[in-house]
Amino acid sequence: MNPNLHAILKEADQAILRHSINGYRGRVRCGVDLGTAYVSLFVLTEDNQPLVGTYQYAEIVRDGLVVDFGGAVELVRKLKAELEGRLGFELQSAATAYPPGVPIAEVRATRYVLEAAGLTCSALVDEPTAANAVLEVKNGAVVDIGGGTTGIAIIQEGNVIYTADEPTGGTHFTLVISGALKIPFAEAEARKINPEEQTRLFNIVRPVMEKVGTIIQQHIQPYPVDCIYLVGGTSAFKGIDRVIENITGVKTVVPGNPLFVTPLGIAMNDQLS
Ligand SMILES: Nc1ncnc2c1ncn2[C@@H]1O[C@H](COP(=O)(O)OP(=O)(O)OP(=O)(O)O)[C@@H](O)[C@H]1O
Ligand SMILES: [Mg+2]
After folding, report:
1. Engineering a disulfide at 50: which of 11, 125, 207, 260 sits with its beta carbon 3.0 to 4.6 angstroms away?
2. What is the pTM of this model?
């Protein structure tokens, strides 16, 4: 695993809060993650140190497909302008990513969102490969539990050799909480991401965690996996690693704040011109 992982993830948290960058004028790498729940943008230095980042909840993508093209363009444009204000210069290009298994026509739509928002699309990578640019796992499974889907990648000798994407993710956690407590979706979402509420909500969401565990188990079973690395926002739910470890029987870890791993890895793929 990347020996600097914790430092990079801490820097990513700082990059979200940073209002200006003290005159850095070197080349930068930018990444746009069009997720089911969050659209995230990160800007890194040439040597992959996080400078600034931002993200916003938006329903513009479903199961990896852009379902609201205009809304996506508008939001990327807005988040780009926000970061440019904090950087003090304009962004020219960015990398973006798609979940494994998405048809090529839909992958193109992702590229068009960037171009319509004023960014040259320098690279289009699959999400697990992006995540592993940050993690640098040599052997194991990288599992991205996002808002809409759970992406699974088997890594052998540093290469992604198998990928899958299944439509269960954080949105399902929120729906279960909303139903159990008879509260609106937005309120359930706010409670779910509050660490102080998570102990109380654990038993409500546990069956969904177990379902995610069963999905992972089915996909990794043919491969010699000795560790599962959890990324994606839903992996931040306290205790999810233990549930998945119990279901799969495989050691499971959440390496630092899992929310920004994939967006950072996407930015690392931006090719410098
Ligand atoms: N602290 C937290 N605890 C639990 N869940 C969280 C936390 N923070 C964010 N989430 C959840 O993580 C999800 C967003 O994560 P992420 O940005 O990785 O997904 P996404 O990329 O938008 O979705 P997908 O990859 O499925 O398209 C949302 O469902 C959100 O509610
Ligand atoms: Mg995602």
Report:
1. 11
2. 0.96
Q: Which residue has the tokens 């996407």?
A: 266
Tokens of 38: 């969050």
Tell me which CATH homologous superfamily contains domain 5-126+260-268.
Answer: ATPase, nucleotide binding domain (3.30.420.40)
Q: At what angle do helices 170-181 and 195-220 cross, to 10 degrees?
A: 130
Q: Using the mean position of ligand 2's atoms as its centre, give its distance from the Cα of residue 146 in Å.
A: 5
- Count of CB atoms within 10 A of residue 165's CB? 24
Mean pLDDT, contiguous 10-residue spans, the chain (273 residues): 94 95 90 96 96 96 90 98 96 94 86 97 94 97 96 94 94 98 98 96 98 97 97 97 98 95 98 77
Q: Is the distance from CB of 155 to CB of 223 less than 8 angstroms? A: no
Q: What residues does each domain of the chain span?
A: 5-126+260-268, 132-258
- Positive or negative, the Cα torsion across 240, 244, 247, 250? negative
Ligand 1, residues at Cβ distance < 6 Å: 33, 35-38, 61, 146-149, 169-171, 189, 192-193, 232-234, 236-237, 259
Ligand 1 pocket test, pick from 209, 259, 262 with the greatest ligand atom count within 8 Å of Cβ, gives 259
Neighbours of 99 (CB within 10 A): 27
Q: Check for a shared fold between 5-126+260-268 and 132-258.
A: yes
Strand partners, 63: none
> Alpha-carbon distance 163 to 99, whole Å?
9
